Amino acid sequence: MASIEELLEMMIRTKGSDLHFIAGEPARVRRLGELETEGDTELEPEFVQNEIYKVMPPEIRAQFESHDHADFALSMEGLARFRVNVFRHIAGMGAVFRGIPASAFSLEELGLPEVIASLCMQTNGLLLVTGKTGSGKSTTLAAMVDYINSRRKAHIITIEDPIEFVHSRKRSLISQREVGQHTRTFASALRSALREDPDVILIGELRDLETTSLAVTAAETGIMVLGTLHTNGAISTVDRLVNTFPLNKQNQVRSMLATSLRAVVSQQLVTKADRSGRLAAIEILINNSAVSNILREGKTEQLENILTGGSLQGMQSMDNALRRLVDSGQVKGEEAYDKAFRKAEFEKYRGAAG
User: What are the beta bridge partners of residue 70?
Assistant: First the structure.
């Protein structure tokens, strides 16, 4: 049975994104969004445990043995960094390793819409990057931080679980903190960060009420806050954010978002037509006077019309983004159909060549 190090080297060499190393199953690698089995040999529980413990820091092992799951970052010199989640399941232990490039990509290298660069230069407010797990949110956020780092003399604080991209100093001062290693929780780190003269705060995940409340407050008080949510689409992101709060506070939150929200960037990864890799299909909702009024009144169902009609301001719906990718030949019609929200409007692309 191949070791974790050997499997990770193979994964990077063959352009995989994730290694699934789980007792009772053959090792699997995700390539172009699909899981592929690496051989037929089932991984024995004792072998899996020994291999995982070899790469797990002692303090993370103690956390795992107390809680039966843990997250950490693994660096392999000369290869890559990996975000690791370790867990127990019915057959023993398991771990999933997500490959992280050695340095952040630029916005241009990722092919992201030009309006995102201008959003990065906002000096205050809340900018959300959303999508399901594995949709490239961390990669996009890292590119945004790198863009700010290259152009502003600012203090950037990142709060992550775990730290993924390690940013070197360019024009900005960057402080990176890992939950569990440098701080107890997202909320405690954010509360401390507010007293540390920040210009930009990146929050790895708005996962609870306290963190979300602090983030919205920070954005309203003149700090640029970048954050993520596991939501599918810009409109559902707004609803999810508001619904995090108790009913008696939701009107106040809507009012705060109406003034502090800068944009929601929602994305999913699609396979390129030549299968050389994947790229992001991006939905962008930008807060303008019309959006602000809708947010304040809680009529989020009206945001769809704004999305589809706001192209002059850099907005676009997910389905329009997919159409552009098909029309430019970057993505096949069948792939766009699979990822589209309104399937009926993409029927014409099914089975189409190119």
Answer: 86
